[in-house]
Write a structure and sequence with these properties.
2 domains; mainly alpha; 14 helices; 4-stranded mixed sheet; single chain; D-Maltodextrin-Binding Protein, domain 2
């Protein structure tokens, strides 16, 4: 291993990368854009439920309890006023509790309770509001529920500890920045292969291991430095910084291997962008699952970036420690090594 030659190759690759105006531009612009996006996103969550309410007989202490539980309501003077408020979009839901509810239930009647929704309220939220209205009616009437309810939380119970949108988005931004560097590295290698530069280098005393080590250092340096800068500016290194940096380093090695694979099937910059975009779309899926937890599934675990995203998300938002995420780190290390080996094998077949 010739350290001086490897250093020269790395310096040459970095210089060529930033001399390419396209990649230099999208690298700087992308980093600035993602950082700005993070700070523009809300840093708080609103856990209140909003509704219009017409319930003439509702006790005041019950209303106070509703407010303490995060229910934001507006008492209406009539059902007509309530309908108008919901129709105008002032409130997404309106609940009408009949007059003399307790007395009518005691007399054996079955009063009709109405719940109004705006068209954009999802079906699952409608069910929640209906159940809430039914419970409210039972609390007013004092009539017991002749059923036993067993409550079970599937997944993490986020009540009272919702994650702000910007903190949910941060792992996604980190993965995108890491993956963007596959384009630059793959384009650099593909151009050198097509121009015969790499074959010319191999005629010199430079060996294949030295060549790939230099390319790997270039790829890891580009990806790791930008992801680290993102985390540093956004406060992502405030808790367990060494753990976060190690995760980013493993991610940088992983995307370097992906860059090798993209370069092995590309002939020019357009094909690099095409294959790189396909890889990007696949690798960001685990980040999207964090934004849309309802679509989570076990098959997500076959995507290597799942272990990076899950680690960063748990460390930043739930103060996870080394003992909590060591399995993720092990899986990320194995995937990174696998993709580097596959990428080197594919590239060697291309230019040897």
């Amino acid at each position: 291993m010739n350290a001086r030659v490897i250093g020269t190759l790395v310096a040459k690759d970095l210089s060529l990368f930033f001399r390419n105006r396209f990649f230099a531009f999208i690298t700087v612009l992308g980093l600035v854009f993602y950082i700005a996006m993070y700070f523009l996103l809300p840093n708080q969550v609103d856990e209140t439920l909003e509704l219009a309410l017409y319930a003439p007989d509702i006790p005041r202490d019950l209303l106070e309890d509703m407010e303490e539980d995060g229910l934001e309501y507006l008492e209406m003077d009539s059902e007509k006023a309530l309908r108008e408020a919901v129709t105008a979009g002032d409130y997404p839901v309106g609940v009408v509790i009949p007059v003399n509810l307790a007395q009518r239930i005691a007399a054996g009647e079955l009063p009709e309770m109405r719940v109004y929704f705006t068209p954009d309220v999802p079906a699952e939220f409608r069910e929640i509001y209906v159940i809430m209205a039914q419970e409210l009616a039972f609390m007013i009437s004092g009539a017991p529920l002749y059923l036993e309810a067993n409550e079970e939380i599937l997944g993490t119970d986020m009540a009272g500890q919702q994650i702000p949108p910007r903190d949910r988005m941060l792992p996604l931004l980190a993965v995108i920045i890491l993956m963007m560097e596959t384009w630059g590295l793959a384009s650099l290698i593909s151009t050198e292969v097509e121009a015969g530069t790499i074959r010319a280098l191999l005629i010199t005393p430079l060996g294949i291991p030295d060549l790939f080590l230099a390319k790997s250092i270039t790829g890891v340096t580009l990806a790791f430095s930008q992801a680290t800068l993102l985390m540093l500016i956004t406060g992502g290194l405030s808790h367990e910084p060494v753990l976060v940096l190690l995760t980013l380093l493993l991610g940088s090695v992983l995307v370097t291997g992906i860059g090798f694979l993209v370069a092995s099937v590309s002939r020019d910059m357009m094909s690099v962008l095409g294959w790189g975009m396909l890889a990007l779309l696949i690798m960001v899926i685990p980040s999207l699952v964090i934004l849309l937890p309802g679509v989570a599934s076990n098959w997500i675990e076959i995507i290597p970036t799942h272990y990076l995203v899950d680690t960063v998300y748990r460390v930043l938002n739930f103060e996870a420690s080394w003992g909590d995420v060591w399995q993720n780190l092990t899986a990320a290390l194995l995937f990174a090594a696998l993709f580097v080996v596959l990428g080197i094998a594919a590239l060697r077949r291309k230019f040897t």
